[in-house]
Write a structure and sequence with these properties.
Layout (H helix, E strand, L loop, with lengths): L1 E2 L33 H5 L20 E2 L12 E8 L16 E3 L2 E5 L5 E5 L5 E5 L21 E3 L2 E5 L4 E6 L5 E6 L15 E3 L2 E4 L11 E6 L5 E6 L12 H7 L12 E2 L6 E4 L4 E5 L3 E2 L3 H4 L11 E6 L4 E7 L14 E8 L2 E8 L5 E6 L4 E7 L6 E4 L6 E3 L10 E3 L13 E2 L6 E8 L1 E5 L14 E4 L6 H8 L7 E9 L4 E8 L7 E4 L3 E5 L4 E6 L5 E6 L9 E5 L2 E8 L8 E2 L13 E7 L26 H14 L1 H4 L7 E2 L9 H5 L1 H7 L16 H19 L12
Parallel strand pairs: 2-35
Antiparallel strand pairs: 1-7, 3-42, 4-5, 5-6, 6-7, 8-9, 9-10, 10-11, 12-13, 13-14, 14-15, 16-19, 17-18, 18-20, 20-21, 22-23, 23-24, 24-25, 26-27, 28-31, 29-30, 30-33, 31-32, 33-34, 35-36, 36-37, 37-38, 39-40, 40-42, 41-43
Helix pairs in contact: 5-9, 8-9
């Protein structure tokens, strides 16, 4: 459904409605949402705007504004709020986008690909685009139906829907100008959660879905017509079927000729992309393999290009200029899809244009972005899978600890990485990069019964906490390894000297991205529901505002009529949606999605309301099944349901519906939900292609049995580990 201030408009051409004029900010230019290459290149000359997801073409997440600084930040208070809660189904989805502000209008996106246009001074809605899409596609998302933002260019707003439809909207009123289907195979588990990027006269988008067996690629479309201009596949297909472009023939030499091509290879470009107009290079970070372990997808253990790599592509031709593989033969889900930053650094006394990235694998990389040459790479977090990165070859020196092909191994970092999708920021003033870091390990183990099944969520490996293993096995796994821990912190990193400068501890899990400002500040939203402002040089906490809603997105800053604002999207979710834990705001408070803006001398911030206590629902009678069927149900639940519904028991609180505490009405339609997809609109699709009626009966029997045991006060821990 398309809403544009109550006006339903056509699907092509720009339509300027005079009735909208009074709703636009007073300082609005005659060309609404007008960003072009010339304007982007001089972004620093208009610091009041935030023109891309990272503000400038280098996506540094740095604001030149300085009205809010170390001396004035104590006066920071609430300015306005917009309700961005999900209006599809019962589940509030995570909000991960960084808003864009152009001439007093804010453009941003929520789950599924909803787009909001707001008056940036007041938060008043100007228009809202809510796409019509198949909610069943949510079943094929590894990590929630999130959306990481829009692109604004020459009067248009571009957004990629979860279901793979790339849409161009009129920036004035949200009217649809064109749509393009970006998926090559709608039978496979493709989704899109990333933000599109603009390179010249093209809008470029990737996709996700490697956990479901898809083949990664990016596609460029004409910004005016939506016609496809080129497509670059990130991994080769079956060599017997030929190659779509010459880079794939070279890549195929790094794969086993008899690889499991049915699993499609993975390598999806699901998040980070950035365009350098000075070098005319488009940089793309690629993801993990499908399945995860190299030995399951390719018996001959080779590099498997272009998995977990940074690619530099000529956007005019779609041809590869250079590549750098951060994790050759990736078997740990160590993607290179984490946000990249372009900057100029002094290297041996010479200013060098660099690309910086802190991917999942635990090493901070600085590359010469002209040619992909490694300048430096050092560990920014505990990493035991490799000893170091060889400065000559650019390849990791393997430790042996990362090989779990024959036996389980305790490995740092875990698959969620040392750093995940949350944007990092670079301050030109301090020369530091700021990023949220996760320092933890899990026990990796090959899933010995793995086989590819279309749209079956199965990584080919299992990831468990050390504590979930028997005591004697824990001791064996921990021998010679760093002490087991799970901790998160906000890190200030010196990329020139590759060293930590300061860190701030974080509570909860899955904390937000970063903003740096010329006011000497660095800002982060936390999972615990606090907006925190630090001294960028020392890490001293200068200001903390409790909003009561977990924040995982990155803050940004802009100005309207001479007033500086800091804004952030608040709403917990993403990969941590199924399990709200103590320390996370959503564990005890409403997780309603919000866009929040703050200014000097603002008011008190509205705090998300507390949730009522959980109540145990009365379970139905136990199904007449054997203990073996309940055990089978437990295994099927683990394979197909636990990744979304594995919480629900203390110390977890379920982000999705708690299947261990269903009410009588839900029990009554359990088969229709799982097999017929009666809740597909909200994201719960049918599983009839993977589960039989007997399978569903076994799962239901297991859930009912567990619910009875819970009501009896038994200490029940459901199967919640992931594979």
């Amino acid at each position: 459904m398309l809403r544009a201030l109550g006006h339903i408009v056509g699907l092509t051409g720009f339509i300027a409605l005079n009735t909208l004029a009074s709703d636009l900010p007073a300082n609005q230019t005659s060309r609404v949402g007008w960003v072009d290459q010339e304007r982007l290149m001089r972004a620093d000359s208009e610091p009041q705007n935030w023109l891309t997801t990272g503000r400038d073409f280098g996506e540094q997440h740095y604001s030149p504004l300085r009205q809010i600084d170390a001396a004035s930040v104590s006066r920071l208070g609430f300015a306005w709020e917009y309700d961005a809660s999900t209006r599809r189904g019962r589940v509030q989805r995570g909000l991960e986008a960084t808003p864009i502000v152009v001439d007093g209008v804010m453009y941003t996106s929520g789950g599924w690909g909803v787009v909001y246009a707001l008056d940036a001074a007041t938060g008043k809605e100007l228009w809202r685009f809510d796409p019509e899409l198949d909610g069943a596609r949510a079943r094929m998302t590894c990590c929630d139906v999130v959306n990481r933002g829009v692109a604004v260019w020459k009067g248009r707003v571009y957004v990629a829907q979860l279901d793979g439809i790339l849409v161009a909207l009129n920036a004035v009123d949200g009217a649809v100008l064109w749509k393009a289907d970006t998926f090559i195979d709608r039978q496979r588990g493709y989704t899109i959660t990333g933000a599109p990027r603009i390179a010249g006269d093209k809008v470029i988008i990737g996709n996700g879905g490697a956990e479901f067996g898809v083949r990664g690629y990016i596609t460029a479309y004409d910004i005016n017509s939506g016609e496809q201009r080129w497509r670059f596949f990130t991994v080769p297909g079956d060599p017997k079927k030929g190659y779509e472009h010459p880079e794939l023939e070279r890549a195929a030499k790094t794969w086993d000729p008899d690889a499991n091509w049915a699993a499609a290879g993975g390598g999806t470009a699901w998040d980070s992309m950035v365009y350098d107009p000075q070098l005319n290079l488009f940089y793309v970070g690629t993801g993990n393999g499908s399945p995860h372990p190299a030995w399951l997808r390719s018996l001959l253990r080779r590099d498997n290009l272009y998995l977990s790599s940074i690619l530099a592509i000529n956007p005019d031709t779609g041809r590869l200029v250079w590549h750098y593989q951060v994790t050759p033969g990736d078997s740990w889900d160590y993607t290179a899809t984490q946000p990249m930053i372009l900057a100029d650094l002094s290297v041996r006394g010479v200013q060098v244009p660099v690309l910086m990235q802190a991917p999942k694998n635990g090493f901070f990389y600085v590359l010469d972005r002209r040619n992909g040459k490694l300048l430096s790479a050092e560990k920014y977090v505990t990493a035991t899978w490799a000893e170091r990165i060889d400065s000559e070859t650019g390849r990791p020196v393997m430790s042996g600890q990362g090989d779990y092909s024959k036996s389980p191994k305790l490995i740092y970092p875990s698959p969620i990485g040392g750093h995940n999708w949350q944007p990092m920021a670079y301050s030109r003033d301090t020369g530091l990069v700021y990023l949220p870091v996760l320092d933890n390990a899990v026990v990796y183990q090959t899933h010995k019964n793995w086989r590819y099944r279309l749209n079956d969520f199965d990584w080919g490996s299992t990831y468990d906490a050390l504590i979930s293993h028997p005591a004697d096995e824990q001791k064996k796994l921990a021998v010679g390894q760093p002490p087991m821990r799970y901790q998160e912190f906000f890190l200030a990193w010196d990329p020139k000297n590759q060293r930590e400068v300061w860190r701030a501890p974080l509570t909860g899990s899955w904390n937000g991205g970063a903003l740096a400002t010329a006011g000497g500040l660095v800002v982060q939203g936390t999972a615990s529901g606090h907006l925190r402002v630090y001294n960028a040089s020392t890490g001293k906490l200068l200001k903390e505002i409790f909003v009561g809603t977990g924040m995982i997105a990155a803050p940004m800053s802009y100005a309207v009529n001479g007033v500086q604002y800091i804004a952030i999207m608040a709403g917990y979710g993403g990969a941590m949606q199924p399990r709200f834990v103590p320390g996370v705001a959503a564990y005890e408070r409403s997780n309603r999605g919000r866009i929040l803006a703050f200014r000097l001398d603002g008011g008190d911030t509205p705090v998300a309301e507390k949730l009522p206590p959980d109540e145990l629902q009365p379970p139905p009678k136990k199904l007449q099944v054997s203990p073996k069927e309940i055990e089978t149900g437990s295994e099927l639940f683990l394979a197909h349901c636990a990744r979304c519904h594995g919480g629900g028991l203390k110390p977890f609180r379920a982000g999705y519906p708690d299947l261990f505490n269903m009410n009588p009405a839900t029990h009554g339609v359990f088969d229709q939900i799982v097999l017929d997809g009666i809740f597909s609109y909200g994201g719960m699709a049918s599983f009839s292609d993977l589960l039989s009626k007997n399978d569903v009966r076994s799962i239901h029997a297991y859930l009912i049995d567990t619910q009875h045991r819970l009501r009896a006060g038994e200490d029940v821990t459901p199967n919640t580990h992931v594979h």
